[in-house]
């Protein structure tokens, strides 16, 4: 059972932890946390969105800017809040993606509160071999 205490310094402690960058359990993230890494020819992003319905997630790409918007709705009805540490309402995150990614082929999936985006590396950004013509071949071509 969760008990509500009459500690007047609890909110002050939470604010101080946020401002000082403490990693305590009361520190609420200012934005949705994201992990990003590269797997071969694919760039992967994972956003933590616990308690968010898939229908409330909105993804946009304009030029090289990826915008993720989501909403965690509050509860309605006859109930009493005992603790409130998870942010509610609309929140968003923008990331600037490099020119070396193929933004036309982004794929997205949502499972267990994690939004996963996979973005392939653009063909023009992949390493390629360049053939070198020898002097004899160049002379034959020019003749």
TrEMBL record:
It comes from the Bacteria. Residues 25-135 form the SHSP domain. InterPro entries: A-crystallin/Hsp20_dom, HSP20-like_chaperone, Small_HSP. It holds the Pfam family HSP20. Belongs to the small heat shock protein (HSP20) family. This is Molecular chaperone Hsp18. It comes from Nocardioides bigeumensis. The gene is hsp18.
């Amino acid at each position: 059972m969760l008990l509500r205490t009459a500690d007047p310094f609890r909110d002050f402690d939470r604010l101080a932890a946020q401002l000082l960058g403490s990693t305590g359990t009361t520190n609420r993230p200012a934005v949705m946390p994201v992990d990003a890494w590269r797997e071969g020819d694919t760039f992967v992003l994972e956003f933590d969105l616990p308690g968010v319905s898939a229908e409330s997630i909105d993804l946009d790409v304009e030029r090289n800017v990826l915008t993720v918007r989501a909403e965690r709705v509050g509860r309605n009805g006859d109930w009493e809040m005992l603790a409130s540490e998870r942010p509610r309402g609309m929140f968003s995150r923008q990331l600037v993606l490099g020119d070396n990614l193929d933004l036309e082929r982004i794929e997205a999936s949502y499972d267990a509160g994690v939004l996963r985006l996979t973005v392939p590396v653009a063909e023009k950004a992949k390493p390629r071999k360049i053939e070198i013509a020898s002097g004899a071949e160049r002379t034959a071509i020019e003749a």
